[in-house]
Every structure is written in structure tokens, then in C-alpha cells.
Amino acid sequence: MLVAETRKRLERISASLPQAVATLAEKDGFGEHEILTLASIVERESGDPKEDPVIAGVFWNRLRDPDFRPLRSLGSDPTAGYGCLVMPERAPSCASYRGQVLPAMLRDAENPYNTYRHPGLPPGPIANPGETAIRAVLAPEKTDYLYFVAAGGGRHRFSRTFEEHRQAVSGR
How far apart are CA 59 and CA 74, in angstroms? Predict the structure, then answer.
């Protein structure tokens, strides 16, 4: 039922944005699986649906910018946490996972869902994406942001450079 409902959502949204789906297929090789995987990451990263298009834009920038390093790295904490949840035996750092992603988990390349260590998308969705997250992946906000950090209240601070991001992380 969950898969059927998600496909209905995707079909409904795709019908309203037909060129977006065709463009993603042609430009990025994205099909249903990839769209829903990226939308699931947006869903887990976002605390406010109004920010979904900006968060999706950040991820598209990371995937497409040839100068972003590590190349095609999504750098999403929830992906690493999901890998610890579904396959804890694969990554040594997951032994201590209790729902909070720790720095050691972000360094652990044994976790196939760790998007800090593996370029591109993880093996599959990490959540059931809502309509706003799916729509955001198909119609992201055009920005030059490459970073974001939680700012409290479900909101984020967005940055263009790593130096700006470091300042946002430190609260400056």
C-alpha cells in the first residue's frame, strides 16, 4: 500500500511537471527510484516544507557542480543514520547507533548509505517522501547554495561557500 500510494503521488506530481521528469531522465539518468530516493533525503533533512525546494536545490548543486568536493557528495547525516538502522552489521561505527548520528558514522565508508563517503545517491530511499519533497526534487529552487545547517525550529541556514558554512555551524 505504501509503495502504491507513493507511486500515485509521483504520478500526480509528474503530470503537473512533465518536462521536469523528462529532463531529469535525460540530464541525470534519474527515473522513479532515483527521484524518490532524493526526495526521501529532502524529507528527512527538512523540518519545514517551505524549505524543501531550497534543500533540494542544494542537493542538485552538489550532484551537478563539477567543482564541489568531494565530487557528487550529498553529505547528508540522515543517510548515514538510515544505513546504521537497516544494516548495522555492515559498518563498525553503527554498533553504538541509538538514533543520533555521530562523527565516526560520517567517516565510516563501510556504511553504503553514508553519503559523505559514497558519491551520488544511496542505494535506496531512506524515508517515505511526502508530496512537497517530491515536488521539490522535480522543481528545486535555483540557488547557488552548497551547504546548510539546522538553525532551530525546523529551519536552516544556507551557505554558498564552505567558509560561510563553518560560520553558520559555529553560530556566527
Answer: 6
